[in-house]
Amino acid sequence: xxxxxxxxxxxxxxAVLALALSVxxxxxxxxxVLFRFGRLVGTRSxxxxxxxxxxxxxxxxxxxxxxxxxxxxxxxxRDNVSVDVSAVAYFRVVDAxxxxxxxxxxxxxxxxxxQTTLRKVVGRHTLDETLSETxxxxxxxxxxxxxTTVDWGVQVTLVELKDIxxxxxxxxxMARQAEAEREKRAKIINAxxxxxxxxxxxxxxxxxxxxxxxxxxxNLQSLVEIGVDQNTTVVFPAPLMSTIGELGSFxxxxxxxAAPAAAAPPAGTGRTDKSLSPAGSAPGTAA
Length: 287
Fold this sequence. Notes:
Structural class: alpha+beta
Oligomer: single chain
CATH architecture of the largest domain: 2-Layer Sandwich
CATH class of the largest domain: Alpha Beta
CATH topology of the largest domain: Tetrahydropterin Synthase, Chain A
Strand order of the largest sheet: 3-2-5
CATH superfamily of the largest domain: Band 7 domain
Radius of gyration: 52 Å
Helix content: 40-55%
Distance between the termini: 200 Å
């Protein structure tokens, strides 16, 4: 009787253990791949799933996007410059069966192929292209990885270069180049300004040559500007003294021409001079 009780207890424990081993839960973001005696049976959708213990094996594969850092590695660019480049890749499983059957460890496989692809693509570009055309490099790496991993049931959605480390000597050389470029632009802008100023000065000189008086007035204005400064010595050019004399003569002529017009009597006043009356009209003469 006691042996029967022990047998029942053992059978009960085995039944509980078998039930526990036969119940599997596939989460919403997963897909199950079922094998029976090592042979592929099919896939299982999310939910509560039952398998045969010790006969079936259920692999649960995540369908979420996986972020995989690509470690920094030394790369020689096309113009023989050594740089350390690191990147990051984003991928997801689109075929759960292929990701289990076609490759042993899909994450490790993608990591290795991403490193070699990064080295190959960056090595085809110069340093300037690597620094300025990162979008094109990212696209080239993603396309190569996407073609390679399609047989693994994986889709690479995005690849981004994360960091590009340059040697210290190259950093100093690039800083000098940038400084020289800024000086070049400053000189070009200065030359363009001087060209515009020279053109404007030429137009002004043509105008002053057509109007000599304007040129003389400009000379006087220059003297006024010189007088503003605290200078103890002012140099008057010889032509300027003759110009001042000409201006004085011009003002004298204008004043003389205006004086007779101001002294003339107004017309129609009726005033006569007795000294100009005809003979015989003086008072006291007989007719």
